[in-house]
Amino acid sequence: MRFDPNTSLGFLVSDISRLMRERFNAAAQSIGLTLAQARVLVQLARNEGINQTALAAILEVQPITLLRQIDKLEEAGVVQRRPDPDDRRAQQLFLTDAAEPHLERIFAVGESLSESALAGMDEPSRGLVVDLLQQVRQNLSPPGADAEPARTATHTPTHTVEGQ
Question: What CATH code is carried by the domain that includes residue 124?
């Protein structure tokens, strides 16, 4: 049997991921964000209180690259750095209340993109696609690792900014 990248799981997932990033990036620009900024905000929504090094690992970027993104988001008033109580050299990252409208727009773009990606599929098929992809993620996650995100995509604000 000859290898066919058109039916290879790895190639399909990679192609789908690239296409979704391209579409999301175009839509994110229309809401005033870059894809990188949107990724940071969503991952912070899932992992508030995380430090920069751990967040960089999740985002698969160098910490210095993330530092520039965090600086811009802090200037925009949507991210706040706080001292890490367990490590005086580190800072934890939190969203401010001002991040909520950005997250709502990001999630709306994501929902629209998902709708486009799953067009032509009935609800049971859509659910099956998600279930199967979650199983693939679980299968590839390290043993004992929680493959589920810390928070769901339907972000509920749990953050406050002192003094506001």
Answer: 1.10.10.10
CA distance 88 to 104: 33
b/e for 24-52, b at 16 or more Cβ within 10 A? Answer: beebbeeeebeebbbbbbbbbbbbbebbb
DSSP H or E stretch at residue 108: helix 99-117
CA distances 144 to 56, 105, 132, 139, Å, are 22, 34, 19, 11
Structure-token pair, residue 127: 């659910």
In a domain, 74, yes or no: yes
Which structural domain, as residue segments, surrounds residue 59?
Answer: 9-140
pLDDT digits (tens, 9 = 90+) for 30-43: 888 888 999 999 99
Output the pTM of the full model: 0.74
